[in-house]
Request: fold
Amino acid sequence: EMKGIMEDHVIPFLRQNFRRESICHRTIMTAGLGESFIAERIMSLEENLPSHIKLAYLPNNWMVRLRLTGRGDDEIRLIKEVERYAGELAEMLQDIVVAMEDLSLEHLIGKQLATQEKTLGLAESCTGGHIAHKITQVMGSAKYFNGSIVSYQNETKKKLVNVDGQLLEEKGAVSEEVAAAMARGARKNLNADFGLGITGLLSPGGDDGDVPVGTVWMGVCDADTVKTKKIHVPYDRLKNKEIATDMALLLLWKFINKKV
Reply:
């Protein structure tokens, strides 16, 4: 009896007398520029957004998600309007846009590798396998992820990643040259198309000479090219590891997409 009342009377009454507001979200993922700098670049567009469309800045580890949220009664019209503004934002920020969908870097990298039918090998020192952990959080990563060598000690770098002992002595474990050598060794020894190596000093207590705490070097390579990047992370050990991991994934994404 109650079901009949609801279906025949209550629900039709609510539909006739109360209009349900539609909500539409679109996300743009950016990397390489802080939110204040992004805000300055898109100020003209943001200031002219209609009152029913709002823009949110969602920063996380040197990446910023821009989320447009629209509210209105006409869902189809609202979707088209929000998508138009998302396209205009992406055009204004094209040099730092990573994706037009709310996906993590590891998911984006996985999609790209799977599409290209390419594989990845890692050699991790300071991150201790954390990059591999993120890569393998993606379902189906076995199709493109060949593995990771956690070469924490210099002896492991020499034996498992083929880093030259003299190079370690001359340049130190935390150096551009060693990061590049680790990337090449990972690619070769794990039989992958792309290699990534990372080495750094995330907290006090290391023995790598005069290297400042927070220094991280990372390198990515394919069969022909090696690219390196240095960052400095000023937080505690865990936070530094998370940032180093995300920055390494970002460098890898840029390398795969020929943006570095």
